[in-house]
Design goal:
single chain; about 270 residues; alpha+beta; 2 domains; 3-stranded antiparallel beta sheet; 3-stranded mixed beta sheet; 9 helices
Length: about 270
């Protein structure tokens, strides 16, 4: 076994012990025991999700253990073509960021089905007091990025009886404000509509529109907010969702020139909240 391999094995053992201890602090002994069984799987997934595993190993053991513990707790593993979470090395720390698919998965486990629909500027939409009452999509004019996005509709349905709890509207102005305020990095640049959808879902959860009670979701949202607020460092090798992209600060696009929308309640004043 080479010295590099010995170092990797030593790091893995240390990280797994730290992650198991973190789980005990987060959720108590009973739930930690169940989640701890996934720690090894989470560590292996973190290595597979990186182009160069050394980028993971250069991060602090504490941050690696925190990311591994969160994946073990939520069951959301990094990697794949449609990732549930991203692991992003920044300034020597490994940041755990959940995707909109990951958020929808956690909500579904708690008994609620969420959907997030990006709305293009050519769509017709009517919003009354923050809720969408009418939406007609313009065929063939789906949004491709933040520059032609009018906003995102978040719908919430209770799985137990199929009841629709609401269809909520977050305009692009609030989404772009959040992206630029966070110094949006490579994940926003690579997955703009996915990040816009995630922003809208987090906003709906923070406002109480989605009545989900889940310790996994609570920890996921807290960790994701910390990751978003972390300073964006010069680019390093990062997970596949952000490969080969610069980490320069993302500039918010200009306001849309035309949005075929009748806004009865001034939704443009709605701001994203944590």
């Amino acid at each position: 076994m080479s010295s590099t391999q010995r170092t990797s094995v030593t790091l893995r053992g240390r990280v797994q012990r730290m992650a198991s201890a973190m789980l005990l602090d987060l959720v108590g002994e009973e739930r930690a025991t169940e989640a701890a069984a996934r720690v090894g799987m989470a560590f292996a997934a973190a290595h597979r999700a990186a182009r160069n595993p050394r980028d993971i190993e250069r991060c602090s053991p504490e941050s690696i253990a925190s990311a591994v513990a969160l994946s073990a707790l939520t069951g959301l593993m990094p990697g794949g073509a449609l990732p549930s979470v991203w692991l992003v090395p920044r300034s020597g720390e490994l940041q755990w960021m959940i995707s909109h698919r990951g958020l929808m998965t956690l909500c579904r486990r708690a008994g609620y089905q969420l959907s997030a629909v990006p709305v293009g500027q050519a769509d017709h939409i009517v919003v009354e007091y923050g809720e969408v009452t009418e939406h007609r999509a313009a065929v063939g004019e789906e949004p491709t990025g933040l520059d032609d996005l009018a906003g995102v509709i978040v719908s919430c349905r209770r799985l137990s009886d199929g009841a629709i709890l609401g269809r909520y509207w977050l305009p692009a102005s609030a989404i772009c404000k959040r992206a630029s305020a966070r110094g949006a990095g490579p994940v926003w640049r690579s997955w703009p509509l996915e990040m816009a959808s995630k922003t809208a879902i987090k906003w709906a959860c923070a406002r109480g529109f989605v009545p989900v009670e889940s310790i996994e979701l609570d920890h996921a949202l807290s960790a994701d907010t910390r990751a978003e607020m972390a300073p964006v460092a010069p680019p390093v090798e990062v997970p596949r969702a952000a490969l080969a992209l610069p980490s320069d600060v993302f500039a918010a696009p200009p306001e849309p020139e035309t949005v075929h929308a009748e806004i009865i309640d001034d939704a443009s004043t709605i701001e994203s909240t944590e």
